[in-house]
Amino acid sequence: MGVVLGTFSIQPKQVNYRRDKVDDELEMTMVCHRPEGLDQLEAQTNFTKQELQVLYRGFKNECPSGVVNEETFKHIYAQFFPHGDASTYAHYLFRAFDTTNNGSIKFEEFVMGLSTLLRGTVREKLEWTFHLYDINRDGFISKEEMTEIVRAIYDMMGKYTYPALKGDVPKQHVDAFFQKMDKNKDGVVTLEEFILACQEDEMMMRSMQLFENVM
């Protein structure tokens, strides 16, 4: 369980800073959507201005229009998991990044989510992950919602990663996690129950933060 990201082959720490800010600002005027200024994004995220410049270049290389729709997102994401079917998980991940619910992800939305996942506090990361699992956005995670996400992750990893999996393994994992999380046994998990369970169980915390090892 967790958030698994490929993130458009963007690696802020492994880049060559060749162009300066003037070039980046100039390029930002040449796309359909112009993101907010780097100074503003630097203030809103945990990235430096240089890292934001690199992230923007990687985003623009994959999405020249300045925005990415779900089909493009799925296509890019599938390249990171060639042995499985990443389409369902990519759908849910796209919805989590699409904070305005308009069917597309702007650079600002992408980099804000990435900042939380890579550089946020433990609580911020868990809040983001809760939002991913809360498929219907009602403020609770049901067992059905958790099962849907977990199955999507297993499908994405594919048979080469889990060659001996039986069909009921995802359900077994969800049952075990849900039993620990649903403190008051009302059939749903609230944000506070989710965070408390993860903080109390080191193994659960690690599983919920898979994204830290995948970037």
From TrEMBL:
Key words of the record: Calcium, Cell membrane, Ion channel, Ion transport, Membrane, Metal-binding, Potassium, Potassium channel, Potassium transport, Repeat, Transport, Voltage-gated channel
Residue span, EF-hand domain: 85-120, 121-156, 169-204
Compartment annotation: Cell membrane
Record's GO cellular component terms: voltage-gated potassium channel complex
The keyword Calcium appears for this protein: yes
Pfam families: EF-hand_7, EF-hand_8
Annotated GO biological process: regulation of potassium ion transmembrane transport
Gene Ontology MF annotations: calcium ion binding; potassium channel activity; potassium channel regulator activity; transmembrane transporter binding
Family: Belongs to the recoverin family.
Protein name: EF-hand domain-containing protein
Source organism of this protein record: Pygocentrus nattereri
